[in-house]
Amino acid sequence: MTDTAEPTPRSDHDSPWKEALEGYFPEFLALLFPRIHAGIDWSLGYRFLDKELQQIVRDADVGRRYADKLVGLHRLDGQPAWVLVHVEVQGEPETAFAERMFVYNHKIRDAHGVPVASLAVLADTDPRFRPEHYHDDLWGCAVDFRFPMVKLIDWDTPERWPALEASDNPFALVVMAQIRAKATKDAETRKAWKFRLIRLMYDRGYARKDILELFRVIDWMIRLPGTLEDSFLQELYTYEESKQMPYVTSAERAGIKKGYRQGEADLLLWQIENKFGADSAEALRERIESADNDSLRRWSVRILTADTADALFR
């Protein structure tokens, strides 16, 4: 019997979304925003503009940012365009969300003079939180900004979920993992879903590279208590042997764990830089990057109320 008192590690949703968007951006658009995907000339390629995004929105004081990605690409008519993807993964609605979408869109367009499409992906579990536009009006001077929005839990229905499981789009696995991570609290059920999603990759015959990348994302999103994680891995190894596909080896697993810890460290350093300044983040970089997962999680909670960087470690 599983020890129900054993805590489930805090799920990380920011890092896996960033990695998934970078690895499967065309597939992301094809699944969640098919109309936009159809209007892009993919033969001309695309590039991520994270540095430009950081510079543009650095001074925008409109709430927390999560897995924001800025991508440069070309429309079918050959004209350049930028796509701003904002993934909202917090559990509660945020009143400033629509305003932030407007501010970022305006700042990017103003700085570079290119058309910008701002896309919202809401991964929270509140069915009422559905921001799709920002409106402001003063004495007849009005702003009405609208943006495409996808609510992931809309897929969690008997009518739509089977389409995700049957989809040959690899990004469907990311969406399913996010939904199950947010909606499933029971550890045994989380383990069953994690194994089911991993099996789908093998059953679809994905290449080893894709299996490892998607495994990393799913593993980041769906965390398990230690004993259940060990049980899950043993079942996975047994299944791999039966399929003669020993992909997720012990070495790969160690690399995935290292990558997860680095993701948490990077996120905490970003929080410190935004709250206490770049000098504080640089001074603490070595200590944070060498810390274990438990310490990183503890400090990530403390930074929400800490008045100084030193208060993180008290």
Automatic annotation (TrEMBL):
Protein name, entry field: Cytosolic protein
Organism superkingdom: Bacteria
Organism: Thiocapsa marina 5811
